[in-house]
Specification:
Layout (H helix, E strand, L loop, with lengths): L7 H25 L5 E5 L6 H17 L3 E5 L6 H8 L7 E6 H9 L7 H4 E16 L8 H10 L5 E4 L5 H13 L4 E4 L5 H5 L5 E5 H9 L4 E5 L14 H4 L6 E9 L4 H15 L2 H9 L3 E2 L4 H21 L6
Parallel strand pairs: 1-2, 1-3, 5-6, 5-7
Antiparallel strand pairs: 3-9, 4-7, 4-8, 4-9, 4-10
Length: about 325
């Protein structure tokens, strides 16, 4: 058999070409992505604020990337069904997860998940934070947050704090307030929205997403004491941020986008670029503002650090309050 012979120069040329192949391939992946429709998995029902935000995002990405981005609602098990769906999906950028603060809570709340959220979901981009609002019935003696804290301290264990269940955001954010303000409130978990009992005065205080309560607040059927974000909300500009009166307090229904681990970095970077362009778009920004959402562009590594920090912060609250689910 005749052997092929190459000169040293030919061998170097071949080696250089072979080394360049992966870079060319990676560039091609980013340029041709997506090759078909993309599913955005949302762990909450249709019509909720995160679902609406996801639909705004999918409309933007569909127009920018030339393929349909479609919201798929997979509610249940505290968003764990949706998360596991994406964890098990192919890492090719065609299955995205709407990441929420609940994912960070679940890391501590659940001991036997079939996945590790921090390890198995790669961060793509932060979207926005939506404030919660601390609200009371108008008949409650306190008209301001300092008055509420003073009343609660003078009446330990006599003020009922509603939530939509153990380990939910209203519960965890309420427990964070209890710990940081030094008050003793009695947690009353509901299986459904407790707003009707708050409106009738059967419970005294409730931490709720701002959109679910703003109509009652504007109609003076409920009294807002504070919003939970670091800054005041444009929807309730006269209501103080919790951190103004309880230093260091900050909580929100934040959302972002994640993909299965091992998704090519080029796809992650492409998605991040297009999402951040959307967050800077005035029209999309105005739609998000209607939800009370505050968009903040982040690079993937920044969003990853944010998730880690939030997971650690919320874990401390959950452990201190001995919150259990199931």
């Amino acid at each position: 058999m005749q052997r092929l012979k190459f000169s040293r120069r030919q061998l170097l040329h071949l080696a250089t070409g072979a080394a360049a192949l992966p870079a060319v391939s990676r560039t091609a992946i980013a340029q041709t992505y997506p090759t078909h429709s993309v599913s955005v998995i949302v762990g909450l029902p249709a019509g909720t604020a995160p679902d609406i935000l996801a639909r705004l995002l999918t409309h933007w990405l569909s127009e920018r990337l030339g393929q349909p981005f479609i919201v798929e609602n997979r509610p249940g098990a505290g968003t764990n069904i949706a998360t596991e769906t994406v964890v098990r999906a192919a890492p090719n950028g065609h299955s995205l997860l709407l990441v929420t603060a609940t994912n960070a809570m679940n890391t501590t709340l659940y001991d036997s998940l079939n996945f590790n959220f921090i390890r198995d979901i790669a961060p793509v981009a932060y979207l926005a934070g939506i404030p919660f609002v601390m609200q009371v019935h108008p008949s409650f003696p306190a008209r301001t947050l300092p008055e509420f804290i003073a009343y609660a301290k003078a009446n330990p264990g006599k003020v009922n704090m509603a939530s939509v269940g153990n380990g939910t955001a209203p519960h965890v954010y309420g427990e964070m307030f209890k710990a940081m303000a030094g008050v003793d409130l009695v947690h009353v978990p509901y299986r459904a929205n407790p707003i009707s009992d708050l409106l009738s005065g059967h419970v005294q205080v409730y931490f709720a997403a701002i959109l679910s309560s703003i109509g009652h607040i504007r109609a003076c059927k409920l009294r807002a004491l504070a919003v939970t974000t670091a800054a005041r909300s444009e929807l309730l500009p006269d209501i103080p941020a919790m951190g103004e009166l309880v230093p260091g307090y900050e909580a929100s229904a934040w959302q972002g986008v994640g993909v299965p681990k091992d998704t090519p970095a080029e796809i992650i970077d492409r998605l991040n670029k297009e999402i951040n362009a959307g967050l800077a778009d005035p029209k999309l920004g105005a739609r998000m503002a209607d939800l009370g959402a505050v968009p903040i562009p982040m690079m993937p590594v920044e969003f990853g650090r944010f998730i880690a920090d939030e997971t650690e912060k919320l874990a401390k609250v959950i452990k201190l309050a001995n919150i259990r689910v199931g």
